[in-house]
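Quick illustration, no need to memorize.
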Amino acid sequence: MPEAATTWRQVPGPPSAARLRDLLRADLGFHGSSGKFATHAWHPFPAKFPPQLAHYFIKGLSAPGATVLDPMCGSGTTLVEAQRLGRRAVGCDIDPLARLICEAKLSPVAAREGMAAGRAVLEGARRDLSKWRRILEAELRDRFDTESRRFLDYWFPARQQLELMSLMRRIEAVAAEPMRRFLRMVFSGTIIAKSGGVSWARDLAHTRPHRVLDKTPPSAFDAFEKRLDANLAVDLPPPPGAAANVLASNADATGLPSNSVDLIVTSPPYANNAIDYMRAHKFSLVWFGWKLTDLRALRKACLGHDGLAPDAAGPLPGRCETTLARLAARDARKAAVLRRYFGEVAGVLTEMHRVLRHGGAAVVVVGSSTLRGIDVETHHAFVAIAEREGFECAGLGARQLDRDKRMMPARWGQGKRTGIEGRMHDEHVIGLIKP
């Protein structure tokens, strides 16, 4: 990662509410344009908003040198665009795989060096499996605890386990941290794939894995080579000198100084765990040494988790309470989970208000959710909560989802639509100003 800055620079020229309203009136769909540029396509990640959207608001609402924050940074779309525009990029996420992806994208390796290191890892791993198979088998038995061992045996064929173990050992031996991080991301991309993947899991990239034993997973060696070639097909220029930081912080407790951020561009997870990131990401994280017990604890701490909280939020704005009452009449548990979500959103918006400087803008991209046939109008709930926390709403924009690019759960079989696919068609872009 670039060297962390110890001072927080404020850049003159705060955006006005009128300027933000003008930006929100534009066509925010960006249909017909590809988001597979720079490092954005380096690793599958569901429900990413298009990089053009982040670029548009960062360029329109901040100046070079400004600090741009995404407190729920995911795969780093906002951060990469902020860095490319010469802004100081800061992101927060408690998901270890999200942070790995972000850090790799923000410090890209040169294509020639990356290809040489990746080829060396691949060739060495192939030799190791041919020559030291029994040693690899023993390491597979000894490296993981009992629960992790059962998990790997359930989801991964024996051959692919040995190939992954051989690749992992070679990657761990790479001395330079940026290169090692990049290769770990490539390794993860062989497991969490939009289609295929080296496990028996189907739909891992969409976070709802299903075990399919009649699937024939590809060789991990071949998948690694394919992902390596795809990521390094174009030699990227070195990132601008602006600093970039990815923090292992929750969105409601970033640890950043008050009034230190010039602009926030973010997209919170959907309500009620509609997209379960940690459920899929554990398939890679287990190989990196994370225990399933620790990953379950992280999952419960994620915004949008579908569990109940003993300290559920107190009274919410009237619009939220009305929605919750309607939902409770049909499904009390779903209403309780949604109350937890709204309460956690309030905590995040409070933190966003604290760290944002006066006159600064926050752009929040919110997906719609339909629960038990009720549109919970998430965008209106966010606005009501944000205004209670001290923000002024400059306006709302709308954009239709491009399903192929937003990477929602896929349909399987002609004419069949998954539940989530039938519910999610558009999203709203909320423009907030801190007075």
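The first strand starts at residue 67 and ends at 70.
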